Amino acid sequence: MQTWKEMKEIQPLAAQMLMNSFKKDRISHAYLFQGSRGTGKKELSVLFAKSIFCKNRNGAEPCLECRDCHRIDTGNHPDLHWVEPEGQSIKKEQILHLQKEFTYTGMESNRKVYIIVDADKMTTNASNRLLKFLEEPSQQTTAMLLTESGQTILDTIRSRCQLLALQPLNSRRAEEMLIAEGVSESNAKLLAALTNNLTEALEMNEDEWFANVRKLVIQLIEVLQNKPNEGLLFINHQWMPHFKERKHLQRGLDVLMLWFQDIINQYLDREDSIVFITEREKLEQAAMRWSRQSSAQCLSYILEAKRKINQNVHPNLVMEQLTLQLQR
Ligand SMILES: [Zn+2]
To answer: What is the full DSSP assignment across 72-102?
Structure first.
């Protein structure tokens, strides 16, 4: 996400707002970027900083080639300051240090920019210090506060920032971005269906445990279809040992749900929505076993199982009951 053109595809509203501020030459003193992990907060703040400092800016687009752009990329720009949690929190001393840096005029221009990562982790003292700082803005200073949860930011700070709420990615877009990151098409479809958090999706893509979840779901379907007498055996000997924690089992059931959704997608000729694109033959066989209606019924059984797991019903019991239901 090096350009505004790319950024606009991921965060259309936020990107447009920031681009407009260059058009109108009205850059605020403080911004609060709020969005869950993986929504591009950091990328957005770096891009905005480049546009502020780049001397060959074309509209809002930074040139990406000049000394300013390069130094931002390598983290060496003298007038761009980063504040990140030290340990669990951002401390008052860190804000004081920042303030001290800012008493000197910019090293090379008179512009200065600072980015506070995980701004919700500021201690009360740090927040109060920052508030004072925001209350006396110099013309040439821009602050960007990044946070996953804006709730814990002091109202007095929030009210001095222009708030930009970053949207979770839609699954089609997440899928494209995963493919661009080198994820195979079939994995990208599966991951994008499970999460719209890119960072999490990329981690899952590298995770052997997750690769085995996919395999186990396909094996479970085969057992249910072809060896119904061995269903419980499979659950106890193959399935359960892989899902030691409840949250893992939830993930397994999410993938199982996608399988039944795919059967329905197939019935409805929704080719684009099919997730298990490399398992078309198996999906067709499954469609002979489960009608559209019974697939929908299976989906509600799985949802019910997920609910019970949340309610602390014993996972083995839940899975055994679900297996019998899916075999009906
Ligand atoms: Zn440049």
So the answer is: HHTT--TTEEEE--BTTBB-HHHHHHHHHHH
